[in-house]
User: Which sequence fits this backbone?
């Protein structure tokens, strides 16, 4: 039987828009602390203001998921791009810290909408039996944008000034809005029931285990995002930023294969190896005193987290059904957001008192415990391993 293709024109357009919009975000994020200081914000609070967007997104995702299941996803994506354009242009006019905080909150609303709806929107163009492979390509698009965005931001900053980064990013979002409008799409609204403010319309309790697991995988992201540079300095490792390059390349090269493996073998055969590989990553990072060891750990982390997170996202959609893909998406992103927030917060205390070795050894133990926890969960829920 011939496989249904995933590379249709609409899906390719969705992929292209995800790269462009992601690049716009990664143009802005690296220069935000310097921009805040230029507007009079004390350096001590730039991190708090920068993280406001993620915090707002955390609380906004359940509403975005509920909206995704009940309204035209294409229109919601266009709305998120238009709101992002409005926020980006407001940054250039914001001359007080209070104004920037207001814009950052609005930006968080747009971010929660686009991030949550995009996975459900992409799933509408994929055959269910190839959902893992298809959504893996959206993940690759995100990785590519992390490589393009900062470089493009540096280019604009060097030639036109910091404020023009926001203008260029708004233009990219405008292209996304226009491109999304042109995507051939028949609205897929699978739930006809009258909306009620019930918990299950915003969050899926049956996905709590997945929220926990994807959150645990994301803790490492949060730690490395904030502390990788300091980790390199404390251990005398130069050029440690190569970690991101190796991590991105590994993700791009392996995600299509791990997605196919998920579609063929199922979630359990993906999650167990993913967590085992992630344990080895954390164990190696605790003992990394040279660049080659750091880069080896980067490869392991990309394979472990990339395959594990994708498996959880795809199986969440399969468990709830496509009619609740928005809630499935938002539930997973809530776990990821919590991991990204808790990682640096816990890391700050452990690093100052016990050091990086204890931090990553402790993280390895937590990841290792996830394996029997998931095994007992599958035994209890189905009477056999998933």
Assistant:
């Amino acid at each position: 039987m011939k496989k249904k293709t995933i590379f249709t024109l609409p899906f390719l357009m969705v992929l292209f828009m995800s790269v462009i919009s992601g690049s716009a975000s990664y143009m802005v994020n690296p220069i935000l602390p310097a921009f805040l200081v230029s507007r009079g914000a004390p350096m001590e609070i730039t991190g708090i203001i920068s993280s406001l967007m993620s915090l707002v997104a955390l609380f906004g995702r359940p509403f975005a998921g509920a909206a995704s299941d009940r309204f035209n996803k294409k229109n919601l994506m266009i709305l998120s791009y238009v709101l992002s354009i409005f926020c980006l242009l407001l940054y250039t006019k914001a001359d007080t810290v209070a104004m920037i905080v207001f814009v950052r909150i609005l930006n968080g609303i747009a971010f929660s909408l686009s991030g949550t709806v995009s996975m459900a929107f992409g799933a509408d163009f994929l055959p269910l039996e190839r959902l893992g492979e298809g959504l893996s390509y959206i993940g690759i698009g995100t990785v590519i944008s992390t490589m393009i965005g900062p470089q493009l931001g540096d280019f604009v900053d060097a030639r036109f000034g910091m404020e023009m980064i926001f203008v260029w990013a708004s233009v990219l979002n405008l292209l996304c809005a226009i491109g999304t409008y042109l995507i051939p799409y028949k609205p897929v609204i699978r739930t006809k029931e009258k909306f009620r403010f019930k918990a299950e319309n915003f969050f899926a309790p049956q996905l709590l285990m997945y929220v926990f697991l994807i959150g645990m995988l994301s803790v490492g992201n949060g730690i490395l995002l904030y502390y990788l540079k300091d980790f390199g300095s404390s251990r005398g490792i130069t050029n440690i930023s190569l970690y991101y390059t190796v991590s991105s390349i590994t993700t791009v090269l392996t995600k299509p294969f791990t997605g196919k493996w998920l579609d063929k073998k199922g979630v359990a055969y993906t999650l167990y190896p993913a967590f085992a590989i992630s344990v080895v990553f954390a164990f190696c990072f605790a003992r990394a005193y040279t660049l080659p060891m750091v880069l080896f750990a980067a490869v392991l982390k990309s394979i472990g987290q990339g395959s594990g997170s994708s498996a959880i996202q795809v199986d969440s959609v399969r468990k709830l059904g496509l009619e609740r893909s928005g809630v499935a998406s938002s539930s997973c992103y809530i776990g990821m957001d919590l991991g990204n927030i808790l990682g640096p917060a816990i890391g700050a205390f452990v690093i100052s008192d016990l050091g990086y070795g204890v931090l990553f050894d402790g993280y390895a133990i937590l990841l290792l415990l996830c394996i029997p926890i998931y095994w007992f969960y599958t035994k209890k829920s189905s009477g056999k391993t998933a």
Summary: The mean pLDDT is 81. The domain at 205-382 is CATH 1.20.1250.20 (Growth Hormone; Chain: A;).
